[in-house]
From TrEMBL:
It catalyses: K(+)(in) = K(+)(out). SUPFAM superfamilies: Voltage-gated potassium channels. This is KCNKD protein. Residues 32-59 form a coiled coil. Belongs to the two pore domain potassium channel (TC 1.A.1.8) family. It is found in: Cell membrane. It comes from Urocynchramus pylzowi. The gene is Kcnk13.
Length: 397
């Protein structure tokens, strides 16, 4: 039987595949008609150009392929700044270690490609560690702020003295030593912070880069989430107004945005994991109840533990143990403790003694007048000794 980790992994894989299939269907329905229209317009322009200048289609296509190769090397029709000057190279390594990878600048030499492999291996690992440490510090700051606000409320209520000393009635404040914010609260704060940073960065990109505000927001998400399509890239023109200030602001916005979005992804992954655990618990609970009902129907006349069980509510915060730890042992035939046996069995010891006695003697025993009055009957072995002792005690009374 699959354990919880394997079941969680398989369920997450299935959900991701379904999510990708749905996304592919939506994007195909939205973008495919536009792509077909653009291709038809391009074929028409290409045909008109070859007819007007008396060129063959093969020669023109060969020339366009050569331009594509030049474009990969960084050559453009419009004048732009050099790709591999120091500032351009610094912008490139920033996109590498942050795992953004816009693609507008790529190494063309063999030495550059080999160096990029080792450089990116160390740089990406160090940057991911920095992002994780940033999230830990952010959670610590949020926890400190929430704890301070909670203590301030307690001081207003008079539970905590204003000098900071805790009296005997401050047990509630003592529990703040392990104070940690809720994952949903952290997710809300990160969402608000990411939105504020994206809006402020878009307000800077719109007039300087000449993009629309929506395109600027789109660029912010693609860059901050380290997707990095490369269709829109900032700081690529040869000259800007207040160029030094703009490049510094661009660097700060990208750094802050990537930190917030990366931390937000980590928090959302925790919420997704909790949701998957909740789904698995629900599925396991239903399967367990079905198996127990089948077992109870097939062996309802047999005295055995675990036929009737009390149900417990399962929440997201629980560890996901199905009913109890003894369910698997009972169904597999493994030995259980007497404590678990008595806690789970609804059959009284008196009825069990009667069944054992009838099984040993081969017929139902006739109960004496004393045993009928005190409710006890003869037994077998050590249980019979206990049964007789209980009967004597009942008669003495």
């Amino acid at each position: 039987r699959l354990n919880a980790d394997n079941a969680r992994f398989l369920l997450l894989a299935v959900l991701i595949v379904l999510y990708m299939l749905c996304g592919a269907a939506v994007f195909s329905a939205i973008e495919l008609p536009t792509e077909r229209e653009a291709k038809e317009r391009w074929e028409e322009r290409l045909e008109n150009f070859t007819r007007r200048h008396n060129l063959s289609r093969s020669e023109l296509r060969r020339f366009l392929r050569e331009y594509e190769e030049a474009s990969v090397a960084g050559i453009r029709v419009d004048d732009i700044r050099p790709r591999w000057d120091f500032t351009g190279a610094f912008y490139f390594v920033g996109t590498v270690v942050s795992t953004i990878g816009f693609g507008m600048t790529t190494p063309a030499t063999v030495g550059g490609k080999i160096f990029l492999i080792f450089y990116g291996l160390i740089g990406c690992a160090g940057t991911i560690l920095f992002f994780n440490l940033f999230l830990e510090r952010l959670i610590t700051v949020i926890a400190y702020v929430m704890k301070s606000c909670h203590e301030r409320q307690l001081r207003r209520k008079g539970v905590l003295p204003h000098n900071g000393r805790r009296g005997s009635g401050t047990s509630e404040v003592d529990s703040l030593a392990g104070w940690k914010p809720s994952v949903y609260y952290v997710m809300l704060i990160l969402c608000v912070a990411s939105l504020i940073i994206s809006c402020c960065a878009s307000a800077m990109y719109t007039p300087i880069e000449g993009w629309s505000y929506f395109d600027s927001l789109y660029f912010c998400f693609v860059a901050f989430s380290t997707i990095g399509f490369g269709d829109l890239v900032s700081s690529q023109n040869i000259r800007y107004e207040s160029q030094g200030l703009y490049r510094f602001g661009n660097f700060v916005f990208i750094l802050m945005g990537v930190c917030c979005i990366y931390s937000l992804f980590n928090v959302i992954s925790i919420v997704i994991k909790q949701s998957i655990n909740w789904i698995l618990k629900k599925l396991a609970c239903k399967c367990c109840h079905r198996c127990q009902r089948r077992l109870f129907r097939s062996r309802r006349n047999v005295v055995m533990p675990g036929n009737v069980r009390s149900r417990r509510n399962i929440s997201i915060e629980t560890d996901g143990v199905n009913e109890s730890d003894t369910d698997g042992r009972r169904l597999s035939g493994e030995m259980i403790s007497m404590k678990d046996f008595l806690a789970s069995n609804k059959v009284s010891l008196a009825i069990m003694q009667k069944q054992l006695s009838e099984t040993a003697n081969g017929y139902p025993r006739q109960m004496s007048s004393n045993s009928k009055q005190n409710g006890f009957s003869g037994g077998v072995g050590a249980l019979a000794i206990m049964n007789n002792r209980l009967a004597e005690t009942s008669v003495d009374r």
